[in-house]
Each structure stands twice: as C-alpha cells, then as structure tokens.
Amino acid sequence: MNADPAEYLSWKTRYWQDFLEKYEVQIPYASAKNILDAGCGPAGIFIILNKDTTAIDPLLLTYEEELTIFDRSWYPDVQFHNMSIEAMVLDNSFDLIFCMNALNHVADIKKSLRNLFHYARPGATFVLSVDVHRYQLLKAIFRIFQADILHPHQDSTEDYLSLLSEAGFQVENNYLLRENGIFDYKVFIAKKPQA
User: Fold this and answer.
1) How far is 187 from 103, CA to CA, in rounded Å?
2) Domains along the chain?
3) pTM here?
4) What are phi and psi of 168, to 5 degrees?
5) Predicted confidence band of residue 6 (pLDDT cuts 50, 70, 90)
6) Is the pLDDT of residue 85 over 90?
7) How far apart (Å, rounded) are the C-alpha atoms in residues 22 and 68?
C-alpha cells in the first residue's frame, strides 16, 4: 500500500465516522463497555473507537512489518491479538462486535460465526459487513470454480441470513452499502438474544 499514511488514515477515519453516524440508532457504540473488531485489518473501525476495544487479525504482524499505515502504538487503548476469528481465544466477552469485510475471507465461516456468538454477551449487537452475490447463477459458478481465491465463501444475502440464524444471532436489519456488478456490499445488524 503506497498511500500517504496520514492522508489514508484521515480518509479511513471519516469513512468509519460516517458509517457509525448512518447507523447510530442501531449500533450502541457510545454505551458499549467492551468492543471487538474481528478481522480488523490495518485500519479497521478500531481506529476511531479506542476505548475498551479488542482488535484481532491473523495478519497484524505482517501489517506492522510491511505497511506504513499501521503501528499498534498509535492506539494505546486497543488490545491487539494476532489470531484468526476461527481460532480466537480471548479472556473477555463483548457488548458490541464488528466484523467488517472479513467474514468471507476466513477458512471456516460457520466456526467463525459460532466463535463470534460465543464471545458476544447476552443482548450484544453484532455488525457484519460483507460482499454478497446478487445472482444465484453466478454464485453457483463462483462456488464450482473457486474463481475468487481471496474470498473462499460465495454467498447471497439469504445465505448470510441463514448462517447468522444458525449461529444463534437474531438479525434485525440488513442494508445495501454499495452495489457492484456481481456483488452487493451489505451490512447486517444482529443481536445475541438475552439469556
């Protein structure tokens, strides 16, 4: 990534602020006591939260070594863990979990969702953003030929609704963030039921 770090992080900060403002009624980030950014990337939503936030990603060490836009020392209030969503083992649970553009990169999507559900406190909000197939025929073709190595899971909105429900989440809403030719980029807002 050759972007100027200050310029890129300024843009990314505005992006996340706009995202939270758009969904502020449904995403209780101001009152959340513990927040998880699962599959955080080098400039995930953690960059604007900074309070009681845990961020996990299996590539954190690579980001730190190879990218000028990430240095964990810039975020002293964030606890970083170099681990995948499927293999995550953490000491606490969370009121709010973000998984932004990461779930369709994991090796085991069902195990990842079970882990996220496990670490969500009763009543927690789960915010998932992901690319979804717009057309069933193209979804089937992508699945057969594994045409997209970086995205091993080729799923539709209906598939994600089913996967979230199967993991135990109650989906409250899903929204179109961006429409592309083959995929839509969507956000799902779900809850872990109260015990």
Assistant:
1) 12
2) 5-191 (3.40.50.150)
3) 0.87
4) 115, -5
5) very high
6) yes
7) 29
Within 13 Å of residue 7, how many CA atoms lie on the same side as its CB?
A: 4
Q: How confident is the model at residue 57 (pLDDT cuts 50, 70, 90)?
A: very high
- Strand order, beta sheet including 183-191: 78-81, 53-56, 35-38, 94-100, 120-133, 183-191, 170-179
Instruction: Tell me the two tokens of residue 21.
Output: 């403002």
pLDDT digits (tens, 9 = 90+) for 115-174: 999 999 999 999 999 887 554 544 445 555 555 555 545 677 788 898 999 999 999 999
d(CA 39, CA 25): 24
Pull the structure tokens for residue 80. Answer: 């970083």
Cα R_g (the chain), whole angstroms: 16
Alpha-carbon separation of residue 108 from 9, 75, 77, 153, 188 (angstroms): 30, 29, 30, 9, 19
Which token pair is 1?
Answer: 């990534």
Q: Do the beta carbons of residue 112 and residue 166 sit within 8 Å?
A: no
Strand bridging mode 120-133 / 183-191: antiparallel
Q: Residue 25 has which token pair? A: 């009624």
- In single-letter form, the type of residue at position 188 comes to F
pLDDT in tens, 179-194: 776 667 689 999 999 9
